[in-house]
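new request in #modeling-help
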Amino acid sequence: MKEPKQMSVSAIQNGTVIDHVPAKNLFKVIQILGLDKIEHQITFGTNLESKKLGRKAIIKISEKFFADDDINRIALVAPDAKLNIIKDYEVVEKKVVEVPDIIIGIARCMNPKCITNFESVTTRFKVISKKNVSLKCHYCEKITNQENLQII
Amino acid sequence: MKNRSLVSIDDFSTDEILQILDHAEEFEKEPVRKLLEGKVIATLFFEPSTRTRLSFESAINRLGGKIVGFADASSSSVSKGETLHDTIKMVSSYSDLIVMRHPIEGSARYASEIASVPVINAGDGANQHPTQTMLDLYSIRKTQGRLDNLNIFMVGDLKYGRTVHSLMMAMSRWNSTFNFISPEELRMPDEFKLYLDNMGLKYYEHNDFTDIISKADIIYMTRVQKERFSDPIEYEKVKNVYVLRNSMLKNTKPNMRILHPLPRVNEIHTDVDTSPKAYYFEQALNGVYVRQSILCTLLGINLTA
């Protein structure tokens, strides 16, 4: 029998690897980071086995390095994500994501009477708890908890 | 504070609040001053609120300002489907300041970000109504001579009552003790009790009026509304429990005053009206002075000019 052809997601020379993304949120991470709009080479794999997450996804972006503020925007959808910064095929730095103090335009306010659910207003929240994520709407001042959290 | 908006009472520092109250005292002494001559104030009432609108319009008229606006959304371009965004953009080019009441929560904050002129929130749904809170603070300070270390009783609908939540948060700046009297279904929500815990302030919860009201400096009454109850029988059981009568005031402190944001239905018996401790009608009048003060403050108008 012929040896199956293997196509592996090859290592990158320089760039960022985002690992431990929950498989179901892969495309949300891509959207939040705007990866669908950049020119760099991107490879990703999804539904990979993970002891921790069940099914995980991994994203490799060549020649792209994120500022902490940018990368922390994925904390709501990929709280366990780990970043490896690659230079010349070597991991030169590891980073974890941290929930930021202010969240702009990622989550939906759970209050059905909030203006952000009536007009095209960019949502904005103050993070009042990072562990069990709890967000206070900048507009209606109501709280949205982890269990009610919806990503736009 | 010039050119700032007033959306939530927390937008202003304690010193700024006190300055607004001080200026309101000046307007009480001399209400008619032509400080807004040549100014146009927009009063946009996307939902009707006769009391608040008349109070603002009275304040503006006494200051010699002119008013444009509407008293309910059906007579405005909203009924043609215009967005709040566009209405505010347009009105801010017609006026020097916008007073806005809107049924949707957060609408006032949003408007203040779009408008090129200051916005005063005259109520955004169940969220905030800061000028009501300011006039409550003014009434408390005026009747008690101070804001510090008072024992505040709040009675009635403490769950949905926007005015009691804002007043409680505001008074927490002055080390108040709180007593909450309400039916089980309409208790003060946990998030506010947690806030008081974090502030290290004392509060007590009661299911009915008792002799405890002899300790009150202020009794703040609110309406218990039938539509707030999931079970109509529960409403029938409690509807007469939270009615304040003159006979109950016998042992209360001489400085105690009764406040109510109005309109009242039956929760304060009319036999209380003639008591020197009844203050709710004066409280409503104070609203005009406080709104005069707020209008001038946000427009950067100097009182002595």
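bot summary: Residues 43 and 103 of chain A are 27 Å apart (CA to CA).
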